[in-house]
TrEMBL record:
Iron found in the keyword field: yes
UniProt-annotated binding residues for [4Fe-4S] cluster: C194, C201, C204, C210
Purpose: DNA repair enzyme that has both DNA N-glycosylase activity and AP-lyase activity. The DNA N-glycosylase activity releases various damaged pyrimidines from DNA by cleaving the N-glycosidic bond, leaving an AP (apurinic/apyrimidinic) site. The AP-lyase activity cleaves the phosphodiester bond 3' to the AP site by a beta-elimination, leaving a 3'-terminal unsaturated sugar and a product with a terminal 5'-phosphate.
SUPFAM superfamilies per the UniProt record, alphabetical: DNA-glycosylase
Domain HhH-GPD: 44-192
Catalytic activity: 2'-deoxyribonucleotide-(2'-deoxyribose 5'-phosphate)-2'-deoxyribonucleotide-DNA = a 3'-end 2'-deoxyribonucleotide-(2,3-dehydro-2,3-deoxyribose 5'-phosphate)-DNA + a 5'-end 5'-phospho-2'-deoxyribonucleoside-DNA + H(+); Hydrolyzes mismatched double-stranded DNA and polynucleotides, releasing free thymine
Family: Belongs to the Nth/MutY family.
One Pfam family, short name: HHH
Lineage of producing organism: Archaea, Methanobacteriati, Methanobacteriota, Stenosarchaea group, Halobacteria
Protein name from the UniProt record: Endonuclease III
E.C. number(s) listed in UniProt: 4.2.99.18
GO-annotated biological processes: base-excision repair, AP site formation
GO molecular function: 4 iron, 4 sulfur cluster binding; class I DNA-(apurinic or apyrimidinic site) endonuclease activity; DNA binding; G/T mismatch-specific thymine-DNA glycosylase activity; metal ion binding
Length: 227
């Protein structure tokens, strides 16, 4: 197996440096043109691919351009307009509730605090972090999606299993000025090389420092299961 650097902060810095060289244009893949579109896109992306979200929102954003538009629509109409998105019925309700709350409490604007964002229907800390980072240029956390969750454990950067407890572990070791980019780098690497069931360790530029590298390691640290 690979030999991770010690301490973990050195491992994190090396991971970031190598992945920045491999993915120099790494950034968010959701398409949006304003904060409301960003918020809606991220809510829809939960357990759904960004590619599918971008297909659906192309027409959605033409029809719904303000928080008032979402508030005025029925849940059924919104669910129909996002058909094809995972859990479209539930998310239709989220979009209406978001529109109503934005109109009632925020003058139709997307708020810029973690607490206000997580008060919105369907918005957890991960979604709020994305909106803060890409909508308001406020970085106060690390977005832990499924790729970050998997790779941070495989690379020995975190031991916790749940995103909520992985995030503070990563905040301790990832340089603060890299918190935002760290997520995009791990997402790109997870999609291209280090998949959940298709880890290409032979073609991975991190193999020599990865404690899960399956040439020698019998265990995938992301799952705790044998390869």
């Amino acid at each position: 197996m690979g030999t991770p650097l010690e301490p973990r902060s050195a491992q994190a810095e090396e991971v970031v440096e190598r992945l920045e060289a491999e993915y120099p244009d790494s950034t968010i893949s959701l398409r949006f043109s304003n904060r409301l579109e960003l918020l809606v896109a991220v809510v829809l992306s939960a357990q759904c691919t960004d590619e599918r979200v971008n297909e659906v929102t192309e027409q959605l954003f033409e029809k719904y351009q303000t928080a008032q538009d979402y508030a005025a629509a029925t849940e059924e109409q919104l669910a129909e307009d996002i058909y094809g998105i995972t859990f479209h019925n539930n998310k239709g309700g989220y979009l209406k509730g978001i529109g109503e709350l934005l109109v009632a409490e925020h003058d139709g604007e997307v708020p810029d605090t973690m607490s206000a964002l997580t008060d919105l229907p369907g918005v957890g800390r991960k979604t709020a972090n994305v909106v803060l980072q890409h909508g308001h240029d406020i970085v106060e956390g690390i977005v832990v999606d499924t790729h970050v969750q998997r790779l941070s454990r495989r690379l020995g950067l975190a031991e916790a299993e749940r995103p909520a407890t992985i995030e503070p572990e990563l905040q301790e070791v990832v340089p603060r000025d890299k918190w935002q980019q760290f997520t995009h780098l791990l997402i790109d690497h997870g999609r291209a090389v280090c998949g959940a069931r298709s880890a290409d360790c032979d073609g991975c530029e991190l193999a020599d420092i990865c404690p899960s590298e399956k040439g020698d390691s019998a265990v995938d640290l992301a799952s705790g299961e044998p390869w």
